[in-house]
Amino acid sequence: MTPRPFLLAAATMTCMAALAPAFAPAHAADLLYRLTATATLPSTDTGWDYIKMEPDSNRLFIARDADGLTVFDVDANKAVTTVADSVGANGPLLLPQYNRGYLAMTDGSFLSFELDSLKPIQRLQLDGNGGINSAIHDPLTRRIHAIVGTRPSESTWYTLDAATGKLLGSKTFPFRKMDDPATDGKGRLFAPARRDNLILLLDSKTLAERARWTAPCNVSKVRYQAHSNRLLAACGGDNPMFFALDPDSGRVVASLPIGNGIDGFAIDEQRKRIITSNNEGTLTVINQEGPDSYSLAGTVSTRPNARMMTMDERTGRLFVVTAEFTRTPPDGNGETSNRYHPDSFVVLTYQPQ
Which SUPFAM superfamilies is this protein grouped with (predicted)? Predict the structure, then answer.
């Protein structure tokens, strides 16, 4: 007969072995992304908006409103310079094929500069009713579309020649808020009207509306993925989600919940990932398993108000920015605002695992 102490010990060891996987250390790949570098920049109490990587380069352009357009070396993890005449920076567009950089400004102007030297070329006043939010480039027409920020009832697009910065025309849409459209490079633009839960299909040459589709939420981010022929999109508001849409039919083929307050969206083709950066202080990471198949890989913590992000296509690194802040009490309308702490603006680098 086996002694009772031996049986108890054996049973305990068996239970521990069975439970061991639950307590095993996480593999590096399970962590998805790890914070590998931080850099704190001199800053005032200003806010910020879009950040963009120059293609095939180590230069990150950070639009920091009253602190201008900062050029940041991501390999050296340090700020290099500030583009001249860029106070009011909101949305950079970087086009090395023309040696041009463009910058949407909070005062309604549009700055152009030489991309290699960073020398300003001109600051063209486009809109007198508020700021220009951002701009996109359509390679088929070689045109830029600069999009205004939120308006009381209508949104205007300003169209410019990408090589010269010459203003070619404008078009007004009956929507309060429109965000960056996506282009398929073959004649189609997909334009989100955020507050109306719509995506417009536009002719890239004429901006004529071909179709409109209802989105399942307040869509603000859209990207066209050529190899899957899918429009990959994300929403903020009360129903934050990622969704994929068939651009030939307008049919939503998949959707997943994401974190609150999305403002950054990246597609990592090498790792088959889609990433959103969220104001709540998280990254939502989604696996793309096929054109119509997606799954949640996990949620990575960042910092509060780290809503804006971009990706280095060379390495898959993610760059997220934020600053320390004090939030005011609600006013009579229940609205709050952030007061940013001087010299607390930080660039966070996340390495894929």
Answer: C-terminal (heme d1) domain of cytochrome cd1-nitrite reductase
